[in-house]
Amino acid sequence: MEYFIQQLINGLTLGSIYGLIAIGYTMVYGIIGMINFAHGDIFTVGAYVALAVILLLGISGATGATMLVLALLLVLVISMVFTAVWGWTVERIAYRPLRGSFRLAPLITAIGMSIVLQNFIQVTQGARVKPIQPIISGGIPLFDGRSDGGIIVQLSWMQLLIIVSTFVLMVGFTFLITKTALGRSQRACEQDQKMAALLGVDVDKTISLTFVMGAALAAVAGLMFLLLYGVLDFYIGFLAGIKAFTAAVLGGIGSLPGAMLGGIVLGLIEVFWSAYFSVEYKDVAAFSILAIVLIFMPSGLLGKPEVEKV
Amino acid sequence: MNVTTTSRYPWENDPLLTVENLTMRFGGLVAVDNLSFTVGRGDITALIGPNGAGKTTVFNCVTGFYKPTEGRIVMRHGPGRRDEAVEELTDSAARYARQEDGAVFLLERMPDFTISSTAKVARTFQNIRLFGGMTCLENLLVAQHNPLMRASGFSIAGLLNLPSYRSAAKEAKDRAIYWLEQCQLIHRADDPAADLPYGDQRRLEIARAMCSEPHLLCLDEPAAGLNPRESAELNALLQFIRSETGTSILLIEHDMGVVMKISDHVVVLDYGRKIADETADAVRNDPKVIAAYLGVDDESEIDDEDIRADLHRGEHQAGTQGGEA
Known about the structure:
Largest sheet of chain A: 2 strands, antiparallel
Number of strands of chain A: 4
Family (chain B): Belongs to the ABC transporter superfamily.
Shape of chain B: globular
GO cellular component, one term (chain B): plasma membrane
Number of helices of chain A: 11
Organism (chain B): Notoacmeibacter marinus
Radius of gyration of chain A: 20 Å
Distance between the termini of chain B: 31 Å
Largest interface: A-B, 25 and 33 residues
Order of helices and strands of chain A: HHHHEEEHHHHEHHH
Low-confidence stretches of chain B: 317-325
Oligomer: heterodimer
Low-confidence stretches of chain A: none
Domain ABC transporter (chain B): 17-296
Strand content of chain A: under 5%
CATH topology of the largest domain in chain B: Rossmann fold
CATH architecture of chain A: Orthogonal Bundle
Helix content of chain B: 40-55%
Strand order of the largest sheet of chain A: 1-4
GO molecular function, one term (chain B): L-isoleucine transmembrane transporter activity
CATH superfamily of the largest domain in chain B: P-loop containing nucleotide triphosphate hydrolases
Strand order of the largest sheet of chain B: 7-8-9-3-10-11
Distance between the termini of chain A: 53 Å
Helix content of chain A: over 70%
């Protein structure tokens, strides 16, 4: 039982990171119907910028609690700004000129941009793995099962930070999309870009802002990944990106809560499979379950089924 | 440019929109051929003609959907013709120019979203284009996107729910509710627009267009598919809009009951050309219009000798031009 709860916490943490990246995929798909494969690499950029700023500020495990919170917030803001600029630029130079051409063109460019970003990071940052010292350690022991031959279930500060900030971001984001003028115009562009333009909505700007928002969330995920695992290489974005994309599809691509749910489900599957079966087959299990879900629910867990009117 | 100075018609003296020498070609097809007409300020102007006459193409040029092949489309805010300002603007590279008491816009130079937000031209479509997945209220709020965006400071103030944003949001909501009430849709405010019956969707489109506070409202066949009671309600709504807000209306319509009852001014197109430009009464009795509308086959139904003579001329013309209709 203790083991189960511990794995649940671990799965939620991993799932939160997947979910945050998945939102970037799902929002872009929702508004322009393309898969932005470069999004995973934007996540890598976010993690690297965070690493650079952490080293520059000299943040370490010895930093005091208040200072640490402020410093990490600063790190977060800086890496969000960087990834936002990257996201905006990629859209502006690589995707916008191709809007309105045939569907495969932006897809191919997206794969191209992904490779460009990956190689850029490899060349400028080196191909070697970059480690940092753990910054946040310790946690809350939830209960001690040692007397019954079990283990201590612990919610580490790091995990708490990840789960809580993901939750806060999700609430903020849902509010942004459902209640504000920007969110409304995003949904309007999703349904009918031409009509939105005729009502005075600047469609290009709305799409740019969508990329910026997705990229900023990827920076949050990047920082969390760095703090959780403590190592980076230029390739992390590839696998994380594929997983997050899977999460977005699993949840129903185009749906915001779906992306988050898909991320958490994927994280839980991975962690539980590793814990109870074999760790080597965790990706096989995750992707098999994806295939099975899509066979029975083609539009994902929360996606709207596509009804064809005749 | 052919700026006529005749004052026979009131709309020539105080024009809101002038379409001047508009030509639109698609490859070899000339959809609109050297068309000029005027929409008077505060008027209800109808654009009529047989199917394929180029009416919707004119709308698409006015609202920035198409870039016209040739011609000038001038929108004016504030009273008067503003001929000097228009010429000055045409010679410059600018898209619009503001004066103390108004502004002039060259619509053919403006990107589509600014035609609504800056030049204040709104339109509806022949086939309904509501945001089906959003509620009626949200549909109307999207039309007020720009003032809301400005007030929300790119969503920052919106997220923090600052007082400045709250008052702008309330104002937008009040306007939306006002138009929902005028269109008798207030009881459906929170329902998805796609769930409304057809006639209600048509009125919702008009309500949405009005929420952008247009100076000119362009309606593409607003009465299409409405039953007689609904088209009577539409007449009342359009007259209410004109008298209450002063918004000028340009409409494409096939329902002559609607056109003749509410229009001040009727422009008739056939094969992309203007064949009549008159008051509603004058157009009703114009033989060329009758010929274009009824087609030459229906000649036997017309018992006036003069009209028959005209019809034969019209038949000859139609035969040489070919096409649909």
